[in-house]
Design a protein that fits this description.
Number of strands: 12
Helix content: 10-25%
Distance between the termini: 28 Å
Length: 216
């Protein structure tokens, strides 16, 4: 996997002062190193040459995005070995970070905005960052995003230097929390699900192994 900044979970009632807030997009993480576009795993994304040809030489980190509630369709498009040019026309690269750049996040976000504006390409979008002055204002912003069909919010410390790994400098705020786990294997279904996938055996980040799902 690529060395990226990964988000923790925002505590309830967090005071947003000192943070920059953006929408959490339900997209596919994509990292541009100036030459090649890659998934978080490091695998090269088979993007059309006309798409990568419009990206700057500056490394970028962001999400390929098709729109709210369209993750499955997006995943099908970006994981094809032979890119569908027509389908890629509808994608946007929502960028939120300049990997390896100096200065606090607030300054990096401003540089990113200028970089995208200079490019003048609608499919390359700098994620909008805003300030919220109270927990109530933050909740109103979250409610607004959820009503529009969004997933939640991201909070990034305005004064944080660039670094990688799981960090308290980047938090996600969602109405329902999620977690990552490694798939270890699969179990056959039983009863009416005999002959089909029954459940996945997974291991959470803290080492706990359990079965996920029933009757896939």
């Amino acid at each position: 996997k690529l060395p990226l900044l990964l988000a923790g979970k925002a505590p309830q009632g967090i005071d947003p002062r000192g943070w920059l807030v953006s929408e959490k997009y339900d997209g596919v993480r994509a990292v541009w190193d100036g030459r090649v576009l890659r998934f978080r795993s490091g695998t090269v994304i088979a993007a059309p040459p006309w798409f990568t040809g419009r990206l700057p030489a500056q490394p970028l980190d962001g999400e390929l995005w098709l729109g709210r509630g369209r993750f499955e369709a997006l995943s099908g498009i970006v994981r094809r070995q032979q890119p569908d040019d027509a389908a890629w026309q509808g994608l946007r690269y929502m960028v939120f970070e300049l990997p390896g750049a100096e200065g606090p996040f607030a300054a990096r976000a401003q540089r990113l905005q200028r970089l995208v504006q200079q490019g003048g390409w609608p499919q390359l979008v700098a994620v909008e960052q805003s300030t919220q002055d109270s927990p109530a204002a933050l909740q109103c912003r979250l409610d607004e995003v959820l009503r529009a069909g969004g997933e939640g919010l991201m909070l990034h410390r305005a004064d944080a230097p660039y670094h990688t790994g799981r960090s308290a400098a980047l938090l996600k705020l969602k109405p329902q929390q999620d977690a990552e786990a490694v798939v270890l294997g699969h179990l056959e279904g039983r009863g009416k699900h005999a002959g089909r996938l029954g459940a996945l055996r997974v291991r959470s980040e803290d080492g706990v192994e359990f079965q996920l799902g029933t009757g896939f």
